[in-house]
Amino acid sequence: MNKGLILVTGGTGYIGSHTVVELQQAGYEVVIVDNLSNSNVDVLDGIERISGIRPHFVEADCTDMTAMKKLFDTYKGIAGIINFAASKAVGESIERPVLYYRNNLNTLMNLLDLMAEYDVKGIVFSSSCTVYGEPDENPVTESAPIKKATSPYGNTKQICEEIIHDVIHSGAPYKSVILRYFNPVGAHPSAEIGELPNGVPQNLIPYLTQTAIGIRKELSVFGDDYDTPDGSCIRDFINVVDLAKAHVIAVERMLQNKSEANVETFNLGTGVGLSVKELIAAFERATGVKVPHKIVGRRAGDIEKVWAEPAYANNVLGWKAESTIEDTMRSAWAWQCRLRERGVM
Ligand code: NAD
Ligand code: WQD
After folding, report:
1. Structural domain contains residue 97
2. What H or E segment, with its residue span, contains residue 169?
3. Are 177 and 319 in contact (CB under 8 A)?
4. What is the pLDDT of residues 255-268, one digit of tens each?
5. Contact status, residue 12 vs residue 45, Cβ threshold 8 Å
6. Is 103 in the pocket of ligand 1 (CB under 6 A)?
7. Nearest CA residue ID for atom 35, ligand 1
8. Ligand 2 atom, smallest distance to 130 CA
9. 30 Cα to the center of ligand 1, angstroms
10. Which ligand is nearest to the CA of 149?
11. How many domains does the chain divide into?
12. Is 153 an annotated catalytic residue?
């Protein structure tokens, strides 16, 4: 069964690699383009060990139009694109804004130009709950106001969404699905692929698992004086495999012309807000491993609480986050242990 050829930009990255597996298991052929700026080519082995299929791989930069045209000429008949490729470190984006605007915007604009030229039917775009900033109300629906971005990274997501809307409204001959992820966490249950941050992790789960295994001395909980039941921040932690599955549905929706609208936006979250302290407790409960941690001051720029209203995605896409937080924490831990076995860290 071959349902069509899908180009996955950033496909050796964290969310991309999990999505490639789900696409393959659903019967799609995949070509990945990645410049390996934030991932490793060995990820292809992990993907192949899970699905039994090695995806096509092109090492190239999506901002390089010549290389991208060559890709489209080599892999004829690309039916759809999922665009994960982007720079994503919030702090770095404040220090190096031009890099973020250039990479994230030029990648998308090149793809949109190529889609018209090569007759591609649709593009799924990775957006983020960061577009809502500190929401006025939780859970957050897709119609909640977009708040002024607090980082160049967040701004690239807002601008990319606007570019997609403008291009579709100009009459572009394709469809788009914009997916706003909340906090993706965990790893594939096989522990063959997972998140592999460079250097000291900035995000909660990789810092937590690295602390649990002894790479870091203790986890700092950034603030317990927020207006939340236990004082720590609240997030919507969404399992990465559940998240990956939504992309397959979104691709199918575009290729089979299931929607009236040419551009649609969906929140991808569980609908449940969990505090940082609750998450640490869930990890300890699920794995039996203690996480040394201490409360420190707030981290500048943090949102107090944000979780998704996923009803629109549930009803329209027919997608729902299914994993329990305990399963997700066990998968994150199994991945960290696998990295240790392999001598990676
Ligand atoms: P990631 O860094 O693991 O994956 C991104 C991949 O894109 C990497 O493999 C990187 O090498 C590649 N890449 C970057 N720029 C490229 C370019 N110009 N050409 C080719 N390849 C390029 O990140 P991720 O966590 O998997 O995120 C995927 C997408 O989802 C990103 O767009 C990110 O902004 C978005 N997102 C992520 C989160 C999150 O918390 N992880 C939340 C919301 C949205
Ligand atoms: C989660 C919670 C921290 C580390 C980021 C981006 C956002 C989106 C998702 C891409 C917060 C606390 C963290 C630590 C801690 N990405 N924390 N100790 O900030 O919700 O969102 O990733 O679009 O745009 O900003 O995720 O994992 O960094 O933090 O206490 O060592 O964990 O304060 O409350 P965040 P995170």
Report:
1. yes
2. helix 152-169
3. no
4. 999 999 999 999 99
5. no
6. yes
7. 126
8. 24
9. 17
10. 2
11. 1
12. yes
Does residue 100 have its Cβ closer than 6 Å to ligand 1?
no
Instruction: Enter the tokens of residue 108.
Output: 């998308």
For residue 316, what is the DSSP state?
A: I
17-48 confidence digits (pLDDT tens): 999 999 999 999 999 999 999 999 999 999 99
Q: For residue 39, what are the CA distances in angstroms to 34, 71, 196, 242?
A: 8, 20, 7, 21
Q: Is residue 279 included in any domain, yes or no? A: no
Cα separation, 253 vs 298, whole angstroms: 41
Distance 208 CA to ligand 1 centre (A): 21
Put simply, whether the predicted model's pTM sits higher than 0.85 gets the answer yes
- CATH code of the domain covering residue 30: 3.40.50.720
Q: How many CB atoms lie within 10 A of CB 38?
A: 18
Strand partners, 295: 221
Q: Which atom of ligand 2 is nearest to the CA of 90?
A: 25
What angle is formed at CA 198 by the lines to CA 35 and CA 342, rounded to 5 degrees?
95
Catalytic residue among 28, 153, 207, 226: 153
3-class DSSP state for residue 83?
strand
Between the CA of 154 and the centroid of ligand 2 the distance, in Å, is: 13
- Domain span at 79: 5-185+238-268
* CA dihedral of residues 151, 34, 339, 327 (deg, nearest 10): 70
pLDDT digits (tens, 9 = 90+) for 296-342: 999 999 999 999 999 999 999 999 999 999 999 999 999 999 999 99
Q: Does ligand 2 lie within 6 Å of residue 207's CB atom?
A: yes
Strand residues in 29-150 grouped as ranges (E)? 29-34, 56-59, 78-83, 122-128
93 CB less than 6 Å from ligand 2? no
